[in-house]
Amino acid sequence: MNLNDTITAISTALTESAISVIRISGADAFAVTEKIFFKKTHPLNKAHRMSKKTFSTIEVNSHTIHFGYIYDGEELIDEVLISIFKKPNSYTGEDIVEISSHGGVLNTRKILSLILSKGVRHAEPGEFTKRAFLNGRLDLSQAEAVADLIKSKTEDAHKSSIAQLEGSLSEFISGVRKDLVNVISLVELELDFAEEDIEFVKKEELRKKIIELKEKFLQIISTYIAGKVIRDGINLVIAGRPNSGKSSLFNFLLSSDRAIVSNIPGTTRDYIQENIVINGILFNLIDTAGLRFSYDELETEGVRRTYERIKEADLILYLIDSTGSEEEIKESLDYYKKEFNPEKSILCFSKSDLSPNHPIIQSFNHSIIQSLSISIYQLSTIENLKNKMTEKFRYSVNLDKKGLLVLTNTRHKICLEKIIESLEKSIESIDKGMSGEFISLDLRNAIQSLGEITGEFTNDEILNHIFENFCIGK
Question: 442-458 as b/e, with b when 16 or more CB fall inside 10 Å?
């Protein structure tokens, strides 16, 4: 990446809207702005267009807003506000101009095209935030928090992203890094005086210090499952035989006719996925094809995809039609007992309003396998189902707790696991009575992995992978 060039992009959705925001960042941001932006001198009308007043960025303070017009030569494009941010106190650490124009696809594109015609390059996805990282305004974990903040769909996801953006993970890493450096210093200082046979720290004390560090990392990793729920949500699959009420329940939970509902078996040929927030938890709700053997090639493919989604699911709602025959219900129950883990599934007897006292269901041993009777026409049963769904993933982490650190990023988890592996190797070296060189090497590997989280040690491939998932203009 060339940090000496100037970039631009539309930072708001390109659609009919009240306003649009176009960003310019880089060495020529102010010079380009002065070529296209002019201050107001008279009420806007044709008679006074020629009396436009030039604008000087040198004469204004940083973090100020100015009213005026965008011109392409003598052609008036729009009436706008521009915000001036002078380096290094800007989002990217460079000179930045943000143009707030009237919304609309054509109007916004005309302004962007005008800026590009002045030699400015179109920004890549996430390039503004990438420059903020490269210029030292954010570390890599904070940059990733920006993307998480934009994508957050629940209050907990928002709180977690804000905490990381404010530096909760960075502060933790800074603290443990100092501890690691102190331990390495003791080991390597002893190496410098190896010939004098001076022991600066007893091996048992060194071992204890490393174990304490390892426990800190294990404690953070233990929050990952909760963090995954916060960030990515729960993959929830609704499964069952054809006509067991899967699509009806799917639509009811979404309050939308998203899936086709029909009495004809095999209507759903492929899975349908939508997001929904229930009791503060994000669920990736998946409606699937009915589980049965079929000679229909399309339906068979749909059933195959259903099994794939079931394997990947965090939670499965397995529906049994309570209006079915005794044989059908018994077959479905036997299949559920054989194929599904009660820890990852909820057994539901659907359409309970139509058959509240089915003998097979009444005789079913609910104490061995917990089940629910549900009906979309009995709201209390659906509320009970929702509570059961969220209870499966209730975590003890309190996101309102000051100083909270919840691990939400898989990349961070992998780095922490590498750190723990290095610390365990150093402990093993101590136990085997190996020399300090081996202990020091493992501890330095731990610091290397720690630096990968914040971007102190990283490579272009990792950076490109992280920022290519950002939206353009951020």
Answer: bbbbbbebbbbbbbeee
User: In a 3-state reduction of DSSP, which class is residue 288?
Assistant: coil
β-strands 234-240, 315-321: how paired? parallel
Q: Does the predicted model carry a pTM greater than 0.90?
A: no
**Is it the case that residue 260 has pLDDT exceeding 50?**
no
Within 76-122, residue ranges assigned H as helices are 105-116
Q: What is the enclosing helix (H) or strand (E) of 101?
A: strand 96-102
DSSP state of 15: S
Write the DSSP symbol of residue 271: -
Enumerate residues 6+ apart whose C-beta is below 8 A from 407: 220, 221, 223, 224, 227, 413, 416
Amino acid at 3: L
Collect all residues with Cβ–Cβ distance below 8 Å to 387 and sequence separation of at least 6: 279
Q: Which domains does the chain have, with CATH numbers?
A: 7-139 (3.30.1360.120), 153-223+403-455 (1.20.120.430), 234-391 (3.40.50.300)
Tens of pLDDT, residue by residue over 307-361, are 777 888 889 999 988 888 888 888 888 888 888 888 888 999 998 888 766 666 6
Structure tokens given for 238:
């609704």
Check pLDDT > 70 for residue 98: yes
